[in-house]
Amino acid sequence: MDFVMVPGGWQGGWVFDSVARELRGRGHRVEAVTLAGLELEGSADVERPVNLAAHVDQVAAVVEGLDGTSVALCGHSYAGLVIAGVADRLGDRLDHLVFIDAYVPDDGDSCWSLTTDMFREMFIAGAKTDGRWVDVPEGMDPRARAHPLASFVQGIALEGNPWPALRRTYISGGDWTGSPFVELTERLRLDAAWQVHEIPVGHNIARRDPQALAAVLDALPTATR
């Protein structure tokens, strides 16, 4: 299986390094994406932060460039919106969608609308310097970079039949302090269209338990068409 892995806010593809190593050791191919504006060397254009639509375009281009026939598109946190947008456009190129402690949007939703007041306050406080970039929260990896505020507040456009014929998996990090995903996880547990797993290590599952995350991903079934 080919995995395309998309990180959440402030982080780059490096957050999946250990997970990717585990999966490659099990015979899979992995493409870990660093979203535009989050590059280690910094944004190429700090005056023009990218938005959600640009991130969807970027990841869609990665998927379109794959020659594999079995693709699992995985998104952490904010990137749940990104992978939903890609799946809405390229559902016939994918076999599985995996939301890793992530937002699961309907048409018009944004990270801003789906998250909690705690995170909205964090976004506003982090963007007070220039109103365009949200500073890295305390305690994150030193490779983390300021995140474009526009991508957090833009609504997702889901224009087609999202995720046609796709298997859908939700991987919860558990009930960590301030999690906006607890109610979502419980709702998806009752939905037969979803598989729900829990790795109760907190939000940053890829860093805190890459082996457990890789094991869940390695065991994903392939969608039947």
Walkthrough of the structure:
By secondary structure, this protein is of the alpha/beta class. The chain has a single domain, classed as 3-Layer(aba) Sandwich (Rossmann fold). The protein contains nine helices and eight strands. The chain has a six-stranded parallel beta sheet with strand order 2-1-3-4-7-8, sandwiched between helices. It has a two-stranded antiparallel sheet with strand order 5-6. Helix 1 (17-25) packs across helix 9 and helix 2 (52-64) packs across helix 3 (79-90). The longest helix has 13 residues, at 52-64. The relative contact order is 0.19. The mean pLDDT is 93.
Keywords for this entry:
6-stranded parallel sheet; Rossmann fold; 225 residues; single chain; globular; alpha/beta; 8 strands; two-stranded antiparallel sheet; 9 helices
Provide a brief overview of the structure:
Helix content is 33%, strand content 16%. It has 225 residues and is an alpha/beta fold. The longest helix is centred in the first third of the chain and has 13 residues, at 52-64.
Per the CATH scheme, the topology name is Rossmann fold
H/E topology pattern: EHEHEHEHHEEHEHEHH
> For the report, how would you describe the main beta sheet?
6 strands, parallel
- What's the multimeric state? single chain
Helix content: 25-40%
Distance between the termini: 16 Å
Name the CATH class: Alpha Beta
